[in-house]
């Protein structure tokens, strides 16, 4: 069996690293960018095939950004600790960079970034999670917390706990968020009722609810943009 061809031995026009330097990172596909990071494949599986297999295994980049070291260890070709450590470090840097961006500027100056940030954290969880972005008076991110998990209803999400955490963070506003493991981002009647309940409870302590974002693999919906707040 032939050994996989390393990136450096590919024709120049097929080398993603050279393509990146010549044309910029946006010119590369997700598979090519991941191949740059992986550098080599394994016997019988070139680096591009390994990169694509990795994306397929986690449902794309968003799923990969949630991968834990033990998840990566199960992928053939990532058994070595050095390669896994490099990949985990890069993925964590990506998450931290996005959080830093939201802390430095008004959240709603880039609503797309908010949706993407929430997708990275919530979309690929196998159970429902309710989270809150706590914001300061300039609508910059103070913290994100996952407060509840399981089927989300008025009885399983406690407004008092949300209010307490908002006061502890000295938040001026919040963005509510939860995921739909089913894959749909359409809000249910229970979602709308829960939003109004939390909006009323937080309003009593002068904390504004700016949005409620529903995320799923491959999508996100803003209830504010839909006029449901």
From TrEMBL:
Origin: domain of life: Bacteria
Statement: the UniProt record of this protein carries the keyword Membrane: no
Organism: Ramlibacter tataouinensis (strain ATCC BAA-407 / DSM 14655 / LMG 21543 / TTB310)
Pfam families given in the database record: RadC, UPF0758_N
Record-annotated MPN domain positions: 107-229
UniProt keyword annotations, A-Z: Hydrolase, Metal-binding, Metalloprotease, Protease, Zinc
Name of the protein: Candidate DNA repair protein
Family indicated by similarity: Belongs to the UPF0758 family.
Gene3D superfamilies from the UniProt entry: Cytidine Deaminase, domain 2
InterPro entries recorded: MPN, RadC_JAB, RuvA_2-like, UPF0758, UPF0758_CS, UPF0758_N
GO molecular function term, any single one: metal ion binding
NCBIfam families (UniProt xref): PRK00024.1, radc
One BP term from GO: proteolysis
């Amino acid at each position: 069996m032939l050994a996989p061809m390393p990136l450096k031995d590919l024709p120049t026009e097929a080398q993603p690293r050279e393509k990146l330097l010549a044309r910029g990172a946006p010119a590369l596909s997700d598979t090519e960018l991941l191949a740059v990071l992986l550098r080599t494949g394994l016997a019988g599986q070139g680096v591009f095939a390994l990169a694509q297999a990795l994306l397929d295994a986690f449902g794309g980049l968003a799923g990969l950004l949630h991968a834990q070291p033990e998840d990566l260890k199960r992928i053939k070709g990532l058994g070595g600790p050095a390669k896994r450590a490099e990949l985990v470090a890069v993925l964590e840097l990506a998450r931290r960079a996005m959080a830093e961006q939201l802390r430095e500027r008004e959240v709603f100056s880039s609503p797309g970034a908010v949706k993407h940030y929430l997708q990275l954290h919530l979309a690929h969880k196998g159970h429902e999670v309710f989270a809150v972005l706590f914001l300061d008076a300039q609508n910059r991110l103070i913290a994100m917390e996952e407060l509840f998990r399981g089927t989300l209803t008025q009885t399983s999400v406690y407004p008092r706990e949300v209010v307490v955490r908002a006061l502890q963070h000295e938040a001026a506003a919040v963005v509510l968020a939860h995921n739909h493991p089913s894959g749909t981002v359409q809000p249910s009647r229970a979602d709308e009722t829960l939003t109004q309940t939390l909006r009323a409870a937080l309003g009593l302590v002068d904390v504004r609810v700016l949005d409620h974002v529903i995320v799923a693999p491959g999508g996100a919906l803003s209830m504010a943009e839909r006029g449901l707040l």
